[in-house]
């Protein structure tokens, strides 16, 4: 029997008082310290008031925290104290402290390691060569790109005397004069030792080169200096072989790596032999990093000169050049200003090389080594002058017949020059004024077939120099002869530069129009698409919708005939991605006349799916941080079309991550659509979206939430007083939700959406729809699986069932009974359905649900319910505490109590004493709170429950028993 009570009497209020500070803020006190006490920084007091004394100059203030740890460590945490202690020692950490101790113990020469002084000991060092200026891309960054680009499938050969295998070549050594023999011993080898290895694949060739590298280092470590020199000479001779010409740049990289190692070995060997006596001491020390030639002993100088004499005795020009360049750094032991003279001398010697390809790579190696030695740039300009002097020979008849023999095109042959030419031009551009660069540009432009020079110039010169003269470059590239390099390749490179460094504002439009005019007239669709791929970013970054639409129209015009677009899906995808990701107005891009027709060119499903996904991703990134909405029908239809493509791609084989990603993109689009006060058009959009997005639970859930929010907004606008029109509209919203929810696969999601939709329908006085939603949600409880997988972990759904039922009961308090269904029909249905869920035998969830049902019934028996919905007549007004209704409530209470008592009996049989005592206490508390104890049977039941609870008091906390005893009394 439920007892009547006043709701306000059951509420417990805590004492209220005003506070000035946050209760969780740490309290501090301010202490005045005199001389001899601990001093520290002065933090602000907790209440904002600080104590100070203007009369005592010797007094200092310090705020000490009440926290014991803070007091122990001067107001700071332990880690800060440890860091402070470490900072006062030699280093900030043990390793730094050890390093500092070693630095102090080592002599000055050892501290200056031969590798590099940049950044050592924390001191800045004046640059001594061009590479230290960090104005040029390091060769190491270019090395991998060259090896990957210049490959071959042809067979290679190698001539050497230091690797086994191959065909023996007998050298011609008929001279017996001792002097000539010594001069020629570096070129000739032991009889029967020279071998030629034929039919090597590229991979095998690289392996052989690595073996030579290993042989060189091993010979040096075994004090076989002459053998190491011979290996370096043989490697240099390989660079004269152009039989597989397309592999030459990669061969140059591999061989010069060996020569670099050889040069470093020679230099380090000379430095170890150049120990000198430091002034003021009698001990021999190593040379410092910035040594001068006068510090080098004569013996070391003689050894150094001996190396150069040996190299000068090499008969062939190419190995003599390369090996001397490799040890060029050793001139620092002989004379102070020898680098500049040697570099200019070697520059003139390279003029003796007849093959222009071999010559330009020799100049590249000379400039690469020279830039690491000196700040002088005179020799680089001289090398460029020599290159321009013989540039015409690249296109003469002899070269053309040679490349025809190698079966490569003139464009392919010209591209072999780019790595070397790029490095030299980049060296020329260092610390060069714009006027000087203009002179170089004019000289290159005046050459016949200057396309190769212009391409290398655009790759090597500063991007701001190119951008500031963008109009001039477009004019040049549109009119020059492009033999050897395609015009499309030049415009593609220019577009890449301007995308990152835009030209001046007044030039941008003319640059775009003139460039696209030339690109469109190339007559080669492949070249056009390669250029458009680069110019798409420039167009979308710096121009409005009109120019972007015109650009897309040009692309469509080129792709239209004969379904040629099927060959350029990748380029089209890149263009679309760049246009959307760089656009300033994403909505405007989607509404362009040529955007969707361009999207229709993607006929392959996998490509189209990827493109649509990228578009929605770019749209989400562009609109994630703003309040921009979509209300343009054209934009809405475009995004709906893209969403349809993604939705149709989802199948049973789609992975969970892919499904989640697609759902997130589509849901973001749905939430962005907002037609303002035009709710009917908004609902029409949701109806269309439901028909399109039927494969994604998340999208359908978002649509249902959006429709519920639409119905709630309608109620807020009419302030709860629906008109005939608004009432019909919210009923349509409720019907939309009720029809859409069954399409969702996940049972728990359906239950939650039914409950939410029923609550919204109840809020809008759609009682029939609300009853239908609540009834459907209750009937789904038996369908919930007992175990589900969440993020790879299997979890029980019992907790979800309890949470759902409690939420449902709080709503059913104010749901009026349907006259055709009987008293508390929905609660009776709930009590009938809940036991059908497969609870575990040891679970207390079902009994906990029954206890919450008792709370519900206790509230249902009250004359006035604790909360209501405006214009909804709940059961307290509907029945008016009619005795028949109260009797029905009490009968349901008896039924629920019987189920709880049966569960208590089962717990006793299973010897679950702790669970039994706990349930007895919980039921006792519910009876004390809501039942009429004046009834004898209720009082007897209460006493029995108390005795059952205290019977096993050793398994229950004593405080809980005392608290319940107080409530009972």
How is this structure best summarized?
With 969 residues, the protein is mainly alpha-helical. It contains 44 helices and 9 strands.
Explain this structure:
With 969 residues, this protein is mainly alpha-helical. Among the domains are: 139-164 and 191-310; 352-440, no CATH class; 764-966. The protein contains 44 helices and 9 strands. It has a 3-stranded antiparallel beta sheet. A two-stranded antiparallel ribbon has the order 1-2. Keywords: Endosome, Protein transport, Transport. Its main location: other.
Summary keywords:
single chain; 59% helix; two-stranded antiparallel ribbon; mainly alpha; three-stranded antiparallel sheet; 969 residues; 9 strands; elongated
Instruction: Tell me the fraction of residues in β-strands, as a range.
Output: under 5%
Radius of gyration: 44 Å
Counting H and I runs of at least 4 residues, what is the number of helices? 44
Give the distance, in angstroms, between the N- and C-terminal Cα atoms: 19 Å
Sheet with the most strands: spatial strand order? 3-5-4
> Level of helix content?
55-70%
Shape: elongated
Mean pLDDT: 82
Structural class assignment: mainly alpha
Annotate the secondary structure layout.
Layout (H helix, E strand, L loop, with lengths): L27 E6 L26 E6 L2 H5 L5 H11 L5 H12 L2 H4 L27 H11 L6 E5 L6 E3 L8 H7 L9 E7 L1 H20 L3 H13 L10 H25 L3 E2 L6 E2 L12 H15 L4 H10 L11 H12 L6 H16 L6 H12 L7 H9 L4 H6 L2 H12 L4 H12 L5 H10 L2 H6 L1 H10 L7 H14 L4 H16 L4 H18 L2 H15 L9 H14 L3 H5 L4 H5 L5 H19 L9 H16 L7 H17 L6 H14 L4 H21 L6 H17 L6 H17 L3 H13 L7 E4 L2 E4 L1 H15 L12 H9 L11 H16 L14 H5 L3 H27 L3 H18 L5 H16 L6 H11 L1
Antiparallel strand pairs: 1-2, 3-5, 4-5, 6-7, 8-9
């Amino acid at each position: 029997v439920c007892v009547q009570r006043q709701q306000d009497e059951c509420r417990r209020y805590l004492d209220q008082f005003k506070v000035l500070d946050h209760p969780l803020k740490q309290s501090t006190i301010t202490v005045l310290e005199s001389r001899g006490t601990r001093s520290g920084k002065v933090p602000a007091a907790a209440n904002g008031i600080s104590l100070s004394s203007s009369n005592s100059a010797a007094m200092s203030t310090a705020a000490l925290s009440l926290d014991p740890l803070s007091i122990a460590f001067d107001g700071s945490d332990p880690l800060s104290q440890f860091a402070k202690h470490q900072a006062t020692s030699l280093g900030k950490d043990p390793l730094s402290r050890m390093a500092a101790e070693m630095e102090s113990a080592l002599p000055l020469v050892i501290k200056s390691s031969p590798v590099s002084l940049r950044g050592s000991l924390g001191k800045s060092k004046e640059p001594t060569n061009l590479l230290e200026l960090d104005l040029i891309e390091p060769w190491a960054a270019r090395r991998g790109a060259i090896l990957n680009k210049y490959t071959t499938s042809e067979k290679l050969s190698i001539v050497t005397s230091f690797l086994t295998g191959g065909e023996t070549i007998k050298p011609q050594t008929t001279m017996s004069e001792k002097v000539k023999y010594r001069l020629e011993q570096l070129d000739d080898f032991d009889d029967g030792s020279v071998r030629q290895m034929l039919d090597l694949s590229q991979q095998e060739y690289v392996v052989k080169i690595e073996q030579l590298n290993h042989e060189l280092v091993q010979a040096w470590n075994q004090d076989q200096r002459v053998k190491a020199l011979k290996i370096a000479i043989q490697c240099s001779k390989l660079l004269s072989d152009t039989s597989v010409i397309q592999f030459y740049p990669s061969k140059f990289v591999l061989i010069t790596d060996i020569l670099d190692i050889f040069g470093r070995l020679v230099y380090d060997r000379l430095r170890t032999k150049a120990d000198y006596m430091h002034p003021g001491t009698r001990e021999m020390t190593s040379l410092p990093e910035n040594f001068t030639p006068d510090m080098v002993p004569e013996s070391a100088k003689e050894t150094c000169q001996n190396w150069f004499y040996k190299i000068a005795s090499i008969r062939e020009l190419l190995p003599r050049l390369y090996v001397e360049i490799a040890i060029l750094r050793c001139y620092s032991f002989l004379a102070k200003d020898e680098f500049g003279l040697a570099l200019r001398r070697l520059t003139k010697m390279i003029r003796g090389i007849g093959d222009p390809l071999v010559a330009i790579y020799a100049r590249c190696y000379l400039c690469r080594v020279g830039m690491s030695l000196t700040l002088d740039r005179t020799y680089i300009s001289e090398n460029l002058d020599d290159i321009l002097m013989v540039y015409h020979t690249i296109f003469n008849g002899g070269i053309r017949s040679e490349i025809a023999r190698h079966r490569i095109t003139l464009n392919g042959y010209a591209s072999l020059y780019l790595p070397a030419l790029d490095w030299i031009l980049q060296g020329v551009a260092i610390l060069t004024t714009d006027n000087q660069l203009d002179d170089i540009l004019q000289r290159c432009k005046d050459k016949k077939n200057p396309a190769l020079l212009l391409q290398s110039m655009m790759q090597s010169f500063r991007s701001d120099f190119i951008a500031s003269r963008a109009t001039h470059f477009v004019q040049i590239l549109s009119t020059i002869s492009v033999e050897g390099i395609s015009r499309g390749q030049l415009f593609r490179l220019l577009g890449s530069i301007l995308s990152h460094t835009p030209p001046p504002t007044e030039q941008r439009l003319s640059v775009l129009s003139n460039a696209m005019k030339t690109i469109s007239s190339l007559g080669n669709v492949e070249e056009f698409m390669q250029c458009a791929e680069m110019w798409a970013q420039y167009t979308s970054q710096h121009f409005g919708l009109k120019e972007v639409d015109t650009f897309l129209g040009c692309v469509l015009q080129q792709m239209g005939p004969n379904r040629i677009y099927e060959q350029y899906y990748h380029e089209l995808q890149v263009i679309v991605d760049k246009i959307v990701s760089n656009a300033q107005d994403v909505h405007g891009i989607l509404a362009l006349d040529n955007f969707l027709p361009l999207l229709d060119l993607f006929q392959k499903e996998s490509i189209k799916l990827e493109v649509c996904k990228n578009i929605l991703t770019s749209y989400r990134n562009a609109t994630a941080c703003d309040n921009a909405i979509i209300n343009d029908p054209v934009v809405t239809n475009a995004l709906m079309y893209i969403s349809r493509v993604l939705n149709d791609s989802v199948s049973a084989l789609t992975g969970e991550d892919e499904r989640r990603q697609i759902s997130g993109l589509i849901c973001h689009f749905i939430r962005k659509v907002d037609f303002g006060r035009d709710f009917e058009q908004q609902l029409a959009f949701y109806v269309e979206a439901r028909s399109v997005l039927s494969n994604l639970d998340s999208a359908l859930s978002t649509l249902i939430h959006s429709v519920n929010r639409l119905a709630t907004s309608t109620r807020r606008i009419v302030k709860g007083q629906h008109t005939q029109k608004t009432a019909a509209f919210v009923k349509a919203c409720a019907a939309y939700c009720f029809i859409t929810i069954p399409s969702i696969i996940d049972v728990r999601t359906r239950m939650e959406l039914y409950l939410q939709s029923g609550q919204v329908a109840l809020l809008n006085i759609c009682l029939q729809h609300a009853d239908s939603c609540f009834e459907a949600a209750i009937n789904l409880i038996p369908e919930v699986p007992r175990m589900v997988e969440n993020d790879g972990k299997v979890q029980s759904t019992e907790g979800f069932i309890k949470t759902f039922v409690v939420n449902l009961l709080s709503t059913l308090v104010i749901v009026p009974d349907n006259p055709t269904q009987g008293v508390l029909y929905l609660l009776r249905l709930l009590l009938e359905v809940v036991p059908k869920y497969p609870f575990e035998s040891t679970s207390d969830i079902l009994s906990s649900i029954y206890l919450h049902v008792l709370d519900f019934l206790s509230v249902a028996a009250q004359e006035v319910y604790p909360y209501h919905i405006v214009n909804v007549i709940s059961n307290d007004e509907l029945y008016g505490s009619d005795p028949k209704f109260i009797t029905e409530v009490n009968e349901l209470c008896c039924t629920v109590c019987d189920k709880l008592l049966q569960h208590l009996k089962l717990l006793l049989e299973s010897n679950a004493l702790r669970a039994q005592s706990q349930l007895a206490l919980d039921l006792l508390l519910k009876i004390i709170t809501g039942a009429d104890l004046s009834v004898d049977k209720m009082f007897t039941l209460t006493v029995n429950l108390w005795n059952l609870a205290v019977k096993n008091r050793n398994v229950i906390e004593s405080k809980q028993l005392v608290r319940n005893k107080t409530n009972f009394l």
